[in-house]
Amino acid sequence: MDDGTSGPLVVAVDGPSGSGKSSVCRQVAARLGLAYLDTGAMYRAAAWWCLDQGVDLEDAEAVTAQVRGMVLDLGLDPRFPTFAIGGTDIATAIRAGEISAVVSKVATNLEVRADLGQRQRRVIEVERGTEGFSRGRGVVVEGRDITTVIAPDADVRILLTASEEARLARRSRELHGDAGEESIAATRDQVVRRDRDDSTVVDFMTAADGVVTVDSSELDLEQTVQATLGVVGRVSGRSA
Q1: Nearest 5°: CA angle at 99, between 88 and 112?
Q2: Tens digit of pLDDT for each residue in 20-57?
Q3: Is the dihedral of CA 133, 135, 136, 137 positive or negative?
Q4: Please, are residues 26 and 234 in contact by the beta-carbon 8 Å criterion?
Protein backbone atom coordinates (compact mmCIF):
# COMPACT_ATOMS: atom_id res chain seq x y z
CA MET A 1 0.00 0.00 0.00
CA ASP A 2 1.19 3.52 -0.81
CA ASP A 3 2.45 5.25 2.35
CA GLY A 4 0.78 8.54 1.45
CA THR A 5 3.93 10.59 2.11
CA SER A 6 3.82 12.27 -1.31
CA GLY A 7 0.55 14.07 -0.73
CA PRO A 8 -2.93 13.27 -2.02
CA LEU A 9 -3.26 11.22 -5.19
CA VAL A 10 -6.20 11.64 -7.57
CA VAL A 11 -6.71 8.93 -10.17
CA ALA A 12 -9.34 9.63 -12.86
CA VAL A 13 -10.66 6.73 -14.95
CA ASP A 14 -13.13 6.90 -17.82
CA GLY A 15 -14.44 4.29 -20.22
CA PRO A 16 -17.43 2.62 -21.86
CA SER A 17 -19.89 0.18 -20.30
CA GLY A 18 -18.45 -3.25 -19.59
CA SER A 19 -14.81 -2.18 -19.70
CA GLY A 20 -14.42 -3.17 -16.05
CA LYS A 21 -14.15 0.31 -14.54
CA SER A 22 -15.96 -0.33 -11.28
CA SER A 23 -14.31 -3.65 -10.42
CA VAL A 24 -10.87 -2.43 -11.39
CA CYS A 25 -11.13 0.96 -9.72
CA ARG A 26 -12.37 -0.52 -6.45
CA GLN A 27 -9.38 -2.85 -6.40
CA VAL A 28 -6.94 -0.08 -7.30
CA ALA A 29 -8.36 2.25 -4.64
CA ALA A 30 -8.23 -0.47 -1.98
CA ARG A 31 -4.65 -1.40 -2.75
CA LEU A 32 -3.50 2.21 -2.75
CA GLY A 33 -5.46 3.10 0.39
CA LEU A 34 -7.59 5.66 -1.45
CA ALA A 35 -11.26 6.58 -1.41
CA TYR A 36 -13.40 5.40 -4.32
CA LEU A 37 -16.14 7.28 -6.17
CA ASP A 38 -18.34 5.68 -8.83
CA THR A 39 -19.88 8.67 -10.59
CA GLY A 40 -22.00 6.44 -12.82
CA ALA A 41 -23.76 5.24 -9.69
CA MET A 42 -24.58 8.86 -8.89
CA TYR A 43 -26.50 9.13 -12.15
CA ARG A 44 -28.21 5.84 -11.37
CA ALA A 45 -29.15 7.22 -7.96
CA ALA A 46 -30.57 10.34 -9.60
CA ALA A 47 -32.64 8.21 -11.99
CA TRP A 48 -33.90 6.06 -9.09
CA TRP A 49 -34.81 9.16 -7.08
CA CYS A 50 -36.76 10.71 -9.93
CA LEU A 51 -38.69 7.51 -10.57
CA ASP A 52 -39.33 7.07 -6.85
CA GLN A 53 -40.76 10.58 -6.72
CA GLY A 54 -42.92 10.05 -9.81
CA VAL A 55 -41.01 12.47 -12.03
CA ASP A 56 -41.32 11.98 -15.80
CA LEU A 57 -37.77 11.44 -17.06
CA GLU A 58 -38.73 13.05 -20.36
CA ASP A 59 -39.37 16.33 -18.49
CA ALA A 60 -35.83 17.73 -18.34
CA GLU A 61 -36.73 20.70 -16.14
CA ALA A 62 -38.57 18.54 -13.62
CA VAL A 63 -35.69 16.06 -13.52
CA THR A 64 -33.19 18.87 -12.96
CA ALA A 65 -35.23 20.33 -10.11
CA GLN A 66 -35.66 16.92 -8.48
CA VAL A 67 -31.97 16.07 -8.71
CA ARG A 68 -30.91 19.43 -7.31
CA GLY A 69 -32.93 18.65 -4.21
CA MET A 70 -31.58 15.09 -3.89
CA VAL A 71 -29.69 14.48 -0.65
CA LEU A 72 -27.30 11.69 -1.63
CA ASP A 73 -25.08 10.14 1.03
CA LEU A 74 -21.97 8.44 -0.31
CA GLY A 75 -19.76 5.90 1.41
CA LEU A 76 -16.32 5.97 -0.25
CA ASP A 77 -14.77 2.80 1.18
CA PRO A 78 -13.70 0.85 -1.94
CA ARG A 79 -14.30 -2.44 -0.14
CA PHE A 80 -17.90 -1.50 0.62
CA PRO A 81 -19.09 1.61 -1.25
CA THR A 82 -22.55 2.76 -0.19
CA PHE A 83 -25.31 4.95 -1.62
CA ALA A 84 -28.28 6.20 0.36
CA ILE A 85 -31.01 8.80 -0.06
CA GLY A 86 -32.89 9.96 3.00
CA GLY A 87 -31.45 7.10 5.01
CA THR A 88 -32.61 4.50 2.47
CA ASP A 89 -29.90 2.19 1.16
CA ILE A 90 -30.22 2.20 -2.63
CA ALA A 91 -26.96 0.45 -3.56
CA THR A 92 -28.81 -2.62 -4.85
CA ALA A 93 -31.85 -0.82 -6.24
CA ILE A 94 -29.80 1.39 -8.57
CA ARG A 95 -28.33 -1.69 -10.30
CA ALA A 96 -31.74 -2.99 -11.37
CA GLY A 97 -32.47 -3.39 -15.07
CA GLU A 98 -35.21 -0.79 -14.78
CA ILE A 99 -32.61 1.81 -13.86
CA SER A 100 -30.10 0.67 -16.47
CA ALA A 101 -32.77 1.11 -19.13
CA VAL A 102 -33.45 4.76 -18.29
CA VAL A 103 -30.31 6.17 -16.65
CA SER A 104 -29.13 7.76 -19.91
CA LYS A 105 -32.20 10.03 -19.83
CA VAL A 106 -30.73 11.55 -16.69
CA ALA A 107 -27.06 11.29 -17.66
CA THR A 108 -27.62 13.26 -20.89
CA ASN A 109 -29.36 16.11 -19.05
CA LEU A 110 -26.72 18.84 -19.07
CA GLU A 111 -28.12 20.64 -16.02
CA VAL A 112 -28.04 17.40 -14.06
CA ARG A 113 -24.48 16.79 -15.20
CA ALA A 114 -23.53 20.25 -13.96
CA ASP A 115 -25.12 19.61 -10.56
CA LEU A 116 -23.61 16.17 -10.05
CA GLY A 117 -20.32 17.40 -11.45
CA GLN A 118 -20.10 19.99 -8.68
CA ARG A 119 -20.71 17.25 -6.11
CA GLN A 120 -18.03 15.08 -7.65
CA ARG A 121 -15.48 17.88 -7.59
CA ARG A 122 -16.37 18.49 -3.96
CA VAL A 123 -15.64 14.86 -3.12
CA ILE A 124 -12.23 15.17 -4.78
CA GLU A 125 -11.53 18.37 -2.85
CA VAL A 126 -12.48 16.76 0.45
CA GLU A 127 -10.37 13.67 -0.22
CA ARG A 128 -7.38 15.87 -0.93
CA GLY A 129 -7.74 17.16 2.63
CA THR A 130 -7.72 15.36 5.95
CA GLU A 131 -11.49 15.33 6.57
CA GLY A 132 -12.39 12.71 3.97
CA PHE A 133 -12.51 8.92 4.09
CA SER A 134 -8.91 8.66 2.89
CA ARG A 135 -7.59 11.20 5.44
CA GLY A 136 -5.81 13.08 2.70
CA ARG A 137 -4.43 10.11 0.78
CA GLY A 138 -6.65 10.78 -2.24
CA VAL A 139 -9.33 9.17 -4.37
CA VAL A 140 -9.97 7.05 -7.45
CA VAL A 141 -12.86 8.52 -9.44
CA GLU A 142 -14.41 6.67 -12.36
CA GLY A 143 -17.05 7.57 -14.92
CA ARG A 144 -17.49 9.04 -18.38
CA ASP A 145 -16.06 12.56 -18.16
CA ILE A 146 -13.67 12.45 -15.22
CA THR A 147 -10.42 12.78 -17.20
CA THR A 148 -11.72 15.66 -19.29
CA VAL A 149 -14.37 17.61 -17.36
CA ILE A 150 -14.45 16.72 -13.67
CA ALA A 151 -10.75 16.25 -12.91
CA PRO A 152 -8.63 17.22 -15.92
CA ASP A 153 -5.88 18.09 -13.41
CA ALA A 154 -5.87 14.62 -11.82
CA ASP A 155 -2.44 13.18 -11.07
CA VAL A 156 -3.21 10.14 -13.21
CA ARG A 157 -5.77 9.99 -16.03
CA ILE A 158 -6.71 6.69 -17.63
CA LEU A 159 -9.13 5.56 -20.33
CA LEU A 160 -10.07 1.94 -19.57
CA THR A 161 -11.51 0.38 -22.69
CA ALA A 162 -12.20 -2.97 -24.33
CA SER A 163 -13.64 -4.33 -27.55
CA GLU A 164 -17.41 -4.35 -27.90
CA GLU A 165 -17.34 -8.16 -27.95
CA ALA A 166 -15.44 -8.34 -24.67
CA ARG A 167 -17.63 -5.71 -23.01
CA LEU A 168 -20.85 -7.45 -24.03
CA ALA A 169 -19.56 -10.81 -22.77
CA ARG A 170 -18.54 -9.35 -19.40
CA ARG A 171 -21.78 -7.55 -18.78
CA SER A 172 -23.74 -10.60 -19.93
CA ARG A 173 -21.94 -12.83 -17.42
CA GLU A 174 -22.50 -10.21 -14.73
CA LEU A 175 -26.24 -9.90 -15.39
CA HIS A 176 -27.21 -13.35 -16.65
CA GLY A 177 -24.46 -15.67 -15.45
CA ASP A 178 -23.29 -16.64 -18.94
CA ALA A 179 -22.18 -15.18 -22.24
CA GLY A 180 -24.38 -17.22 -24.55
CA GLU A 181 -26.00 -15.77 -27.64
CA GLU A 182 -29.36 -15.10 -25.96
CA SER A 183 -27.76 -13.51 -22.90
CA ILE A 184 -25.57 -11.24 -24.99
CA ALA A 185 -28.57 -10.18 -27.08
CA ALA A 186 -30.46 -9.33 -23.91
CA THR A 187 -27.50 -7.30 -22.69
CA ARG A 188 -26.77 -5.38 -25.87
CA ASP A 189 -29.17 -2.52 -25.14
CA GLN A 190 -27.61 -1.80 -21.75
CA VAL A 191 -24.11 -1.63 -23.23
CA VAL A 192 -24.28 -0.42 -26.84
CA ARG A 193 -27.36 1.80 -26.60
CA ARG A 194 -26.28 3.42 -23.33
CA ASP A 195 -22.83 4.17 -24.74
CA ARG A 196 -24.38 5.64 -27.88
CA ASP A 197 -26.76 7.83 -25.88
CA ASP A 198 -24.16 9.01 -23.38
CA SER A 199 -21.66 9.76 -26.12
CA THR A 200 -23.92 12.57 -27.31
CA VAL A 201 -22.79 14.66 -24.33
CA VAL A 202 -19.27 13.37 -23.56
CA ASP A 203 -16.51 11.50 -25.39
CA PHE A 204 -15.39 8.47 -23.39
CA MET A 205 -14.35 6.23 -26.27
CA THR A 206 -11.08 7.94 -27.18
CA ALA A 207 -8.32 9.19 -24.91
CA ALA A 208 -7.81 12.94 -24.63
CA ASP A 209 -4.31 14.40 -24.61
CA GLY A 210 -2.38 13.19 -21.58
CA VAL A 211 -4.78 10.31 -20.89
CA VAL A 212 -3.25 6.81 -20.88
CA THR A 213 -5.27 4.01 -22.51
CA VAL A 214 -5.55 0.58 -20.87
CA ASP A 215 -7.20 -2.00 -23.14
CA SER A 216 -8.68 -4.84 -21.09
CA SER A 217 -10.06 -6.85 -24.02
CA GLU A 218 -7.65 -9.75 -23.47
CA LEU A 219 -7.08 -9.26 -19.74
CA ASP A 220 -8.81 -10.74 -16.72
CA LEU A 221 -9.65 -8.66 -13.66
CA GLU A 222 -6.32 -9.09 -11.87
CA GLN A 223 -4.34 -8.42 -15.03
CA THR A 224 -6.33 -5.25 -15.63
CA VAL A 225 -5.81 -4.13 -12.04
CA GLN A 226 -2.07 -4.70 -12.41
CA ALA A 227 -2.00 -2.84 -15.72
CA THR A 228 -3.83 0.10 -14.13
CA LEU A 229 -1.56 0.11 -11.09
CA GLY A 230 1.35 0.05 -13.50
CA VAL A 231 0.13 3.23 -15.15
CA VAL A 232 -0.37 4.86 -11.74
CA GLY A 233 3.18 3.91 -10.78
CA ARG A 234 4.74 5.18 -14.00
CA VAL A 235 2.85 8.46 -14.05
CA SER A 236 2.83 9.33 -10.34
CA GLY A 237 5.67 7.31 -8.90
CA ARG A 238 3.26 5.78 -6.39
CA SER A 239 2.87 2.03 -5.93
CA ALA A 240 0.61 -0.37 -4.06
Answers
A1: 80
A2: 899 999 999 999 999 999 999 999 999 999 999 999 99
A3: negative
A4: no
